UniProtKB/TrEMBL annotation:
Organism listed in the record: Salix purpurea (Purple osier willow)
Domain FH2: 1-312
One GO molecular-function entry: actin filament binding
SUPFAM superfamilies, alphabetized: Formin homology 2 domain (FH2 domain) (SSF101447)
InterPro entries: FH2_Formin (IPR015425), FH2_Formin_sf (IPR042201), Formin-like_plant (IPR027643)
Disordered: annotated span: 320-340
Gene Ontology biological-process annotations: actin nucleation
UniProt record similarity statement: Belongs to the formin-like family. Class-I subfamily.
Name listed for the protein in its UniProt record: Formin-like protein
Lineage: Eukaryota, Viridiplantae, Streptophyta, Embryophyta, Tracheophyta
Length: 340
């Protein structure tokens, strides 16, 4: 709310014997203008007041980024899911030049729901989730496929039900494993960098004010201001150096994790935090699919309990997984093929 230069001149030239009276706001500003570099001092004091909270916010942000990178690299469930997607893509593309991929960009995860089976409802992600919950459930249940194969159809089906119940508790929990990833997805690298730069430039402005203040430090108020700010400056400069180092380390980890999943194509990424956005959006889709899979499994169990057939299984909705067909979405460029 600092006055303009023209307003400053008018207030300074105003004489008390004038027939006009100043309002409370103008009287206050006229007094403030008698303080040397008043508004530069106010800026310095505001910077001082908000410094700790700004630094704490940025530290937490960089810690979240570091934790998000750690989660993506070490989440067992997430890596299992990626492995299942890769294997599924390779099985669907047997006989093609895309049938032996070793990796794929995470953007592919968002396209899994665009690939539908023969029933027109079940997506490729539904199939992947069903496979994972069966395998995870089998591990938790403490049995293997050979043991299951030796059992009667009814007993095997009962085991299958237990597998899926246990496995369905694992996959939806992925969102909990990647909490920091979801937080990181809401961040903007440009905003964080500008906030750090703003704090660093604030130190420069305070230094300029202190130099101006030294010229009139004969007054007690000016001396006290310099003493207070010099003490703060020493602490603030150290904090900013540490913060800049933390920023560099966090952004380096983000770059590494992006290259880990996307290889050399990571260099073309315009938004450094996009990888977190992709995973966050996928987790939202995955949560919805897991709920649908749970309902599908319940319906399957109910329908199979009524005079149970000798082999209580549903016909495959993705026959290409057992044949040599190439499946893709409607857009050839958006193929489910997982390129190496």
């Amino acid at each position: 709310m600092a006055p303009t230069k023209q307003e400053e001149y008018k207030l300074k030239d105003f004489k008390d014997e004038s027939p006009f009276k100043l309002g409370p706001a103008e009287k206050f500003l006229k007094e403030v203008l008698d303080v040397p570099f008043a508004f530069q001092r106010v800026d310095a004091m505001l910077y001082n007041t908000t410094f700790d909270s700004e630094v704490e916010y940025l530290k937490r942000s960089f810690e979240t980024l570091e934790a998000a990178c750690e989660e993506l690299r070490n989440s067992r469930t997430f890596l299992k899911l990626l492995e299942a997607v890769l294997k599924t893509g390779n099985r669907m593309n047997v006989g093609t030049n895309r049938g032996d991929a070793h990796a794929f960009k995470l953007d592919t995860l968002l396209k899994l729901v665009d690939i539908k089976g023969t029933d027109g409802k079940t997506t490729l992600l539904h199939f992947v989730v069903q496979e994972i919950i069966r395998l995870e459930g089998s591990c938790l249940f403490g049995t293997n496929q050979n043991q299951t194969a030796e059992k009667t159809p009814i007993s095997a089906f009962q085991d299958e039900v237990e597998f899926r119940k246990l496995g369905l508790q694992v996959v939806p929990g992925l969102g909990g494993e990647l909490m920091n990833v979801k937080k990181a997805a809401a961040m903007d690298s440009d905003v964080l960098s500008s906030e750090v730069a703003k704090l660093a430039s604030g130190i420069t402005k305070i230094t300029e004010v202190l130099k101006l203040n030294e010229e009139i430090a004969l007054k007690e108020s000016s001396w006290r201001f310099s003493e207070s700010m010099n003490g703060f400056m020493k602490k603030a400069e150290e904090e900013i150096v540490l913060l800049q180092a933390q920023e560099k380390a966090a952004l380096s980890l983000v770059k590494e994790i992006t290259e880990y999943f996307h290889g050399n194509s990571a260099k073309e990424e315009a938004r450094p935090f996009r990888i977190f956005m992709v995973v966050r959006d996928f987790l939202s889709i995955l949560d919805h699919v897991c709920k649908e899979v749970g309902k599908i499994n319940e319906r399957t169990i109910c329908s199979s309990v009524r005079p149970m057939a000798s082999n209580p299984t549903l016909p495959p909705v993705f026959p290409g997984l057992t044949g040599r067909h190439h499946y893709s979405s409607s857009d050839d460029d958006e193929s489910i093929s997982l390129s190496a």
